[in-house]
Structures are given as structure tokens and as C-alpha cells.
Amino acid sequence: MNIAVEKVTSSKINEVDFDNLAFGSVFSDHMLECTYKNGAWETPKIVPYQPITLDPSSKIFHYGQSIFEGMKAYKDKDGGVWLFRPLENQKRLNISAKRMAIPELPEEYFMEGLTSLLQVDKNWIPENDGSSLYIRPFMFASGNGFHASPADEYKFIIATAPSGAYFSGKVRVLIEEKYSRSANGGVGFAKAGGNYAGQFYPTQLAKAKGYQQVIWTDDNTHEYIEEAGAMNIFVRINDTLITGPTSDRILDGITRKSILDIAADEGIKAEVRKISVAEVVAAAKSGELKEMFGAGTAAVVSPISGFGHQGTDYDLPELENSYAMQLKKRITDIQYNRAEDKFGWRYRVI
Amino acid sequence: MNIAVEKVTSSKINEVDFDNLAFGSVFSDHMLECTYKNGAWETPKIVPYQPITLDPSSKIFHYGQSIFEGMKAYKDKDGGVWLFRPLENQKRLNISAKRMAIPELPEEYFMEGLTSLLQVDKNWIPENDGSSLYIRPFMFASGNGFHASPADEYKFIIATAPSGAYFSGKVRVLIEEKYSRSANGGVGFAKAGGNYAGQFYPTQLAKAKGYQQVIWTDDNTHEYIEEAGAMNIFVRINDTLITGPTSDRILDGITRKSILDIAADEGIKAEVRKISVAEVVAAAKSGELKEMFGAGTAAVVSPISGFGHQGTDYDLPELENSYAMQLKKRITDIQYNRAEDKFGWRYRVI
Prior knowledge:
2 copies of one chain form a homodimer. Chain A is α+β, with helices and mostly antiparallel strands. Helix content of chain A is 24%, strand content 28%.
């Protein structure tokens, strides 16, 4: 495939302080752009990062027909550039697309488009420890009309942002009992835009009470832990790691499933099963709850320092040899090409 | 409030065939635009209908933070221009805004902005019977960043489209048993963009089977009828009209509640209560199911000619004196200023 490249006339890279990167707030020089029109995806092209112009009746503004992915590019100490299980993102993008009635994107448009973009903007990939180039592939309805039906035109764009950590400081979570993230038979398993906006208000309420994230529970009984919206959730009771099964309400997280494989390899007993809130609270009270952590591309592995439930706060112990730290080290060592990759997850770009 | 008006240099109105209007696909000359920035809504202004330009990282593309309203302006035979219960839309916009963590808009920005826009584009309001000017107020996150949190900037826009009927032909519906529209504790009661995109794929599947719309049921048991996504649902069993109660899963439709008031005034017995699918199917089998219809701003009152459930199709009788037609005539007579408005619902613009 011949991907046309239109380069910037002057790079913005010297304006960026790579030692103090926030998450996803400065953007690289270029982006990949691909248009769906007349029933087909056109060949992607690389263009300078630039504004998008749309008719006010574009369906993205009205009907939330949008999906995205989150990925990272990692630079090793020799300047090699790596992706982590990119085909999983490509597949999930199309799973999300199908559910949201967006036309699926050919695999090669995604993979060749992404690797070409990274080659053009390779200098934007941070070398600092803990930083990476956050990659945001996204698709949205660009077709027009005030009729609640799928659009006839779409855009697929990949933009990238050199980024530091997603969370700063300790993460305390609130187990939610009133609001919900997703319905049975809904779109919770898709990375659909609307899944995120729906979480903002309950998360604001939780933040006002001193929590950073909400742990969502099932919408019918609020008895079972599901996910945290920006990450899947793991719970360690005694020496067993537990995470909920994926479903049509829960995102099939790539970090989540990698953590499960690594845990098995490290000899950590892990269970994939429904986790009741009652079990977590009882374990917290008895001291058997050793850890909770979130797992996701942006969050990597984020230890949770405590949780709130029905007006009571539960603190988690600070362990010297936590599973969270052990698993985080193992996965980031693979991602940054610092250790053997027995799973075949690394994908070399440069 | 002083709303600045920038007029088009030449109108597009002569290009429009007012005798053959589709729904929401041609747009009037002007739009109202209002920006939220630095913690406040700026004064709205009227500008030529024009493209919107956004950064690729604008949160509307990624997190579905968008809401809208649907309204109509009606022209009477003397050239008078009317809205129907516009304050209900204004209030609901802010109810939706709050749930989606979007800053609420002052009432006068909405009402003065809308009436000023209609004065500027009054020639775009169709005079043909059954046509009206569809009004689309919408709000979306225009602030930037790849962080799943509310934006710091928003746009509120009102665009208008001279429109004919929303549905053409008979409407057959499928009672959905696998997919769902909304969760308990979710955003189903809000006119949030993502509520609509999530319906597209199941609706495509239903269309492939010969239905125009899906009747959503509760996500937990699929035993109770909720709404049809683009409209609320009414069922007539014998001489009783029934519609489900509003909830956090069901939109508080303005047409729905007006229909209930009109029914009471017309001496039609109406019940607001949960309607089970089993009850509807049993009534269809026994011949007691006389009518089903949808009610909404776009759909007005749309008779349903039949429904599918678990592979069986049920046809509804064609009644000469249906409640649907009686109620539709009464509500449109009020909307178009053809009859007394004892409820005080009409709002004169010009």
C-alpha cells in the first residue's frame, strides 16, 4: 500500500518539555487520516496534525457514533521502537466498529498506517523512563443529517501524544451503587465514546468525596464488581488474584489479559470469576484483601490505595512485594524491550 | 441580551424544494452559536450556517460528551410562527447536560437565542401541511485532550432544517430481546449522543428482517416494554391507552406527556404503568390489542402497523377512528394554531 506523506514545514518538537509530560495533551507533528466514502475506506494518508472541519449536522455531534483505541509506542535504550500486541487493538477496533454500526477497517490500513506514522514521527517517542508515545486511533461519523441512523461517511484518524503517567499520586476508588456504566446487551464491551461521557458525572461526584475513580458494578443488583471505566480491576485476596470475566458490559482489556498470562507464568494463582462487593468488603475487614489494582493501556498497572463503599473507607496495606509491582515490572520490561518476550507480544516498528 | 447577527451574503433558500422535504437534510441559512470557555457561557451569536473546526483531540471525537434536543417551529395560515412547549426542551437540555457533565446553559441564552434565530430565518419555516422547521439545539465537548475526563470547553449550537415526515410508509417494530438501549443508573433518560449510536446496529439487524424500529425492553429481563429510541411507545388494549413510566432508562418525552394530557381531556382512559411483553402478545392474540403508536417530536404520533416477537409477526388492525389519529389531530391542531390551546402549550415567536 502506498501511503502518501505530507510533512510539516517546521516541527513543533522543540517546544515540548519531554521531562515533564502530562498525559495526552501535546500532539506529534503528524496524523494518519483515512476517509470512508461511497461504501469504501480510501487509502490512508499521513498529513500534518491539523484541525478537522465538519458540517454542524455531522452525526458525530448528535448521535455519538464514535469509537477509539488506546495504544503506546515504546523506545528501547538502543532507539528501537516497539508496539505491544497491536493486532489486538486492530481487532478490537473492528469489534467496536461493528457494534456501533461503523464500517470495519481493513487490517493493513490500520497496521501499515500506524507503522508509517510512527516512522515519520519517531522523534516524538519519549526515551524517559515511564514515558511513551500514547497512540490514539479513532473513528467517527462524519456524514451529515438530523436523522437518527448511521452516517454514510466516516473518518479514521491516528493521532499520537508523547505522554507521562495517566494517574499522578495515589488512586482511591469508590464502589458505585447508584449509577452504572453499561447495560446487558448494551455497548459496554466496545470502546464507544458514549461509554466514557456517561461516567464523567458519577466520577465527578466521587472526586468530590476524595476518590479518583469509580468501580462500576452491575446495573441490576450492584452486587458485582465490573471495571473502572479507564481500566479493568484486579483484586488480591490472600495470595489469589481475581478479576471479573469479560462480558457485553466489560471491556476485553489487552493489559488485563496480558496480566493473566504473566500471572500464570509467574506462578501467581489467578481466577477469572465474578467478584461480589460483599466478598471484597469482607476480605478488607478480615485483612485478607491484600491488593487491588487497575490494568489498562493508559493506566498500565495502577495500585489502588483504598476504596469507599456505603460511606465507609477501607485502606489497603502497602506491600513491599506486591503483585501489582511484580506484574507491572514484568509487563513494562516486555513493552520497553528490557526482557525476554516469551509470549511474542512485542511488535518491532523501527 | 444583545445577540449579534452576522447575515449570509446570499440565501440558499431558492435551492430548496419545499414541496418535497426529507427529514433534517437541508439546513437554513443561519445558526446560533454559543461557546463555553473559562468557566462561563459567552453571549450567543447568530452566524451563517457554516462548518465547525475542531482539534483532532477534541473530546467530542473520543468520549461522546454530547447532547441534543429536537423541536419544531410551526407556521400558521396567517404567517404566525409557533413553538410547542419550548421551556420543556430547555429544561431537559440542562437535565441531559448535568448527567453528561456538561455545563448547564442559562434559560435566556436558549430562549432568546432560539427566538432570534427563528426571526432571522423565518422564511425557512415551511407552510405546507405536515411540514415544519425542525430545530436541533445541541451541545458538545470542544475542549481538547486524550484524558477521559470532562472537557474545559463546549459549544452550544442551534441549527434548523425545513423537514417533512420522519417516517415514510408503515412502521413495523421488533420487540428486542437481546440488545438493550440503557442501563439502570445509566444515561437513558438523557438525550445523550451515545444513546442513539448504540441503537444503530440492533436497528440494522431489525431492518434486515423488515422492521423500521426496535422496541427496547429492560436490559435485565427483557420482559417490559420501554421505548423505541426515536419515540416513546403507547399501547391500546381494548379502550385503554397504556405507556410505560419514565425512569432513568426512558426519555421523558414532551410529546408523550402532552398525549397523556390530551387523552385525559378527550376522555380516553390512559394508564402509566409497566407494560409487559407478555401482556402485549396475549392481547395481540386475543384481538384486544387495538393500536400501538410512537410519540416524539420528530415522529409526532406514528401508528405502528405490526410487531415481531420471538420470530412471530403480529399485525394490528387498521381502525377508522384510531386513538393515534384522534390524538395526532388534536396535538398538531394545537401546534399549528388551528385550534384552541387550553393547555397553554403554544409559544408565539412571530
